[in-house]
Amino acid sequence: MATMAEVARHAGVSVATVSHVLNETRRVLPHTRRAVLDAVEALGYTPNTLARSLVTSRTRSIGLAVSAISNPYFTEILQGVEARALEHGYGLLIADPHDDPEQECKAVRLLHERRVDGVIVAPSADPRGLLALLARHSVPTVFLDRLIEEERAGAAFRFDQVCAENTAPMARLVSHLAGAGHRRIALVAGLPGLSTTTERIDGYRQGLVAAGLPHDERLVTGGDSAAEGAERATAALLSLADPPTALVTANNAMTIGALRALRERGLSVPDDLALCCFDDFAWADLFAPRLTAISQPSREIGARAVQLLLDRLDAPDRPSRTERLPCTFVHRTSCGCPDTLSRKGTAL
Ligand code: HPA
Question: Residue 334: CB within 6 Å of ligand 1?
Fold first, then answer.
């Protein structure tokens, strides 16, 4: 394998000049730069990033810790992160803490030990250990999807955040069902402690208020953000003496659980129960029922998270930023509306 010294000799320059050309650490005359790049090409030289990291203290790598990486919502976030990181010459190390606070700390500690330049984390419902760890080691951090109140993290620890709008889109689903005449609209909500859960429950309530509907606490059930939890929650809703006529599920996994509970009872959507869901699926318009859904800008969330992290690496003391990206309302037929009304998507 060719060494940097051989490249330098081949190009007739010093090793330091080769280093400056490859790391873009100093301006080099165009013809010298050309000679170095030609030598790199001729000798098939591959930079040793480990050696470079010892000099620069940067590894040009980002750690990503998100739970449920198999969930298409997070897979798309990952794609957005990967694409933007690659654009800027950064590699990725990935961990899935499975929404477990202990595993979350372990995963982030491991990423930090590998000396990633910063981390992007979708925090669990109990991020106290994680926050202490990040603050102790001053790890440049961006949180995505689940927001953290700044006071929780300690005054000295600066971080940035990016997530989708949750409240207004959820209210939109409820108003839509109310507009179609539903009076008993139930919610299958996510894991307690996640900001997404709280905000989507708030949105549900705002939707009811806007439609002038009373709030019946029995119609709000916890589906633990997962299919199994939602299956149980939906079954409980259907067993009520006065069951709902419409249901809103607060994420894609819970939509699957709700549909399973309905099939188990031989009920069909939208004839027996209208359904609207948070999260769009790649196949949501292919199967019956075609799902009326809120589509989150997942790739964009991932891309913005990388950008916020790179900006922070450039300027560690810059003020913290929280970005919220808008969702889209995708009107199909599971809400009970005729097919002719369904549209590609409406920005919210
Ligand atoms: N947060 C936001 N949206 C989601 C999630 C989540 O954890 N899971 C599926 N959709």
Answer: no
> Which of 147, 188, 279, 324 best tests ligand 1's pocket when mutated (most atoms within 8 Å of CB)?
279
pLDDT at residue 308 is higher than 70: yes
**pLDDT digits over 206-254, tens only?**
999 999 999 999 999 999 999 999 999 999 999 999 999 999 999 999 9
**pLDDT tens readout for residues 132-180:** 999 999 999 999 999 998 777 666 778 999 999 999 999 999 999 999 9
Best of 191, 225, 296, 324 for a ligand 1 pocket test (most atoms within 8 Å of beta carbon) = 225
Using CB atoms within 10 A of its CB, is residue 314 exposed (0-12), middle (13-18) or buried (19+)? exposed
Question: 61-164+298-325 in CATH: which number?
Answer: 3.40.50.2300
Same fold, 61-164+298-325 and 167-296+329-347: yes
Locate the domains of the chain by residue range.
4-56, 61-164+298-325, 167-296+329-347
Instruction: State the pTM of this model.
Output: 0.89
Q: Is 251 in the pocket of ligand 1 (CB under 6 A)?
A: yes
Enter the tokens of residue 43: 């000798």
pLDDT at 343: 62
**Distance from C-alpha of 207 to C-alpha of 213, rounded to nearest angstrom:** 9
> 287 C-alpha to center of ligand 1: Å?
22
* Tokens representing residue 227 in the block: 């299919």
Question: Which tokens belong to 22?
Answer: 């490859």
Domain at 4-56: CATH code: 1.10.260.40
Quick one: DSSP state of residue 41?
H
117 in contact with ligand 1, CB cutoff 6 A: no
Give the whole-angstrom CA distance, residue 124 versus residue 131: 11
Cβ pair 293, 280 in contact under 8 A: yes
DSSP E strands in 23-153: the ranges are: 61-65, 91-95, 118-121, 141-144
For the segment(s) 167-296+329-347, the CATH number from 3.50.50.60, 3.40.50.2300, 3.40.190.10, 3.40.50.300 is 3.40.50.2300
